[in-house]
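writing this on my phone so excuse typos. first protein, seq and then structure
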Amino acid sequence: MEELIQRSTASKIFLPNAHTLNLAIANPKYHAVLNRATYCFGDGSGVRIAARIRGVKMKSNLVGTDLIPDFFQTTANRGYRYFLLGADPDTIEQAARYAQQHFPGWELAGYHHGYLTCPELRERAIAQIEAAQPHLLLVGMGNPIQETWIDQYQPAQVPLAIGVGGLFDHWGGNLKRAPRWVRYFGFEWLQLLCQQPKKWQRYLIGNFTFLFYALIYWKPDRDMQSKFNRRRKL
């Protein structure tokens, strides 16, 4: 991520979870947006299980609420600036205050709410970002809005933009993190469901729908399948 910041071209990182990929399956245009990312890092147990079905073992669960603080702490005091875009006006202000207090090794270049409901608001936000000249743009508008916004409107002079989902709700005090042991076993979604019951379909139906998709789209390795067939014949 720091290497991307030091490049002269604009890069983008997305953190797809099971819900993100369900949307991508249903929407080819959004699927294409995700594929245009510089990197996609897996977020959540569902993505890790699906990868394992395909024979890929992910090294880590890169949920944005862990990844961004770790990155800020690892790269502190190197002259980097960040800009926060997303959430409602009160939440983003609280999130900016939290970030300033907890990550003094980075400079807050500015922030703007994510309710860009008309072209005038969008252009005003883009102009504010361009004037701030941040090294890192964090966009928290939810899927698929944040990835689509980054894909279409990331200023060319911003080296790296990352879609961070509900990070600002955590920093702004709207959501509480699950205990570490709950996160370790991959059940943080239960904590989020308790705090956001209106999203029950996303968690209770969407997670199982994603695993269903992972199974029906799985194509076994031909060499492994041929070996299996030979063993059956023996």
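second protein below, same order as before
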Amino acid sequence: EAIIIKRIKLGEADRILTLYTPDLGKIKAVAKGTRRPKSKLGGHVELLTHSQLMLARGRNLDIITQAQTIDNFLPLKDDLERISRGLYISELVDSFTAEHIENRRLFDLLLNTLHQLSQAKNGELVLRYFELRLLNYIGYRPQLQRCANCSSPLQPATNFFSSSQGGILCRECAYQEPIARPLSLNALKVLRLWQDCDYASASRVKTNPGLSSELEQVMREYIKYLLERQLKSTAWLDKLKQGIPQPM
């Protein structure tokens, strides 16, 4: 069982697929002939497809010998914004995980998020919830309850988020770190809720454009700091928001 999160061309007709699985974590395998129009495997190993696969042990990479689709998330793939968000979460998983490290909670989160992206009207909320939960599961949970530097209780006012400290700073500690960004009380409340609630509870939160943008920026800066680079898919998402047509 696997979700295809990345694929690259190999030779004239093959592909190397990056798979995220519930029991083996992230693995790579070769799908032979899938770039040919009549390939029997092709439709079952498309990006963002949940499939049942049979692999044969290879010298360097395993070979996919059989495949059967469990869910191809067609509503997601028929909409440019939805599939762009799907590619973003798959890039997040690929960037933050090493191969052969099992993380069933992350697999379940990825699978559930693909379902939510196929249905939800508020895709931005789905992304923020996914980012926070992913950080929980891989050991980068931000400190949102107390000051990340001095551990003092946070005041119910504008505080500051520090990517390098991994969480919120009180006003006193923020003076020592000029690059810490202000975080409104409403944004802090939403992040705290989403960090520990289920998706049904998270989806009941109403955010205006200003708050949504604030949440996106703080999460993007933290992820960029952790990865030491910007994800490629964020540029695509930004251009979609600006209404810039993209070449297909």
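The radius of gyration is 20 Å. thats all i got for now
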